[in-house]
UniProtKB/TrEMBL annotation:
Assigned GO CC terms: membrane
Top-rank taxon, per record: Eukaryota
Sample GO molecular function, one term: mechanosensitive monoatomic ion channel activity
Coiled coil (residue ranges): none
Organism: Panagrolaimus superbus
Protein name: Piezo non-specific cation channel R-Ras-binding domain-containing protein
Length: 112
């Protein structure tokens, strides 16, 4: 069911459809990255304090997520690499900022 939802969501994107062409639901895996993984997230204690102070501040902030997916070469497919990014604005007082502070400080019990 998740595969059909994914396919439906991107049905109007030629790039996405070209990338997922020839894949079935058995080929697609939904991956969740553990936010506590040291291989994915490292920040020094001074940088952590600075980030938390900024998150607690009154300046607008944004988060940028980037991703890059590659698949094995195939002469019939036009797109072997898909990459994109998303910027999420975090205005002052946004609840996500407080949730990020709790997560960075190690006090969060809620998945983000």
């Amino acid at each position: 069911m998740e595969y059909e939802t994914l396919y439906y969501k991107y049905r109007t994107s030629k790039t996405a459809l070209s990338y997922i062409a020839d894949y079935t639901e058995l080929d697609v895996v939904k991956a969740t990255i553990n936010g506590n993984s040291a291989s994915r997230w490292q920040i020094s204690p001074p940088a952590r304090e600075y980030l938390m102070a900024n998150l607690n501040g009154s300046q607008s902030m944004s988060m940028q997520f980037e991703w890059n997916f590659k698949r094995a070469p195939d002469e019939n497919l036009q797109y072997g690499v898909v990459e994109d990014f998303r910027i999420i604005e975090l205005p002052p007082g946004d609840n996500i900022r407080q949730e990020l502070i709790a997560m960075i400080d190690g006090n969060s019990t809620t998945p983000m």
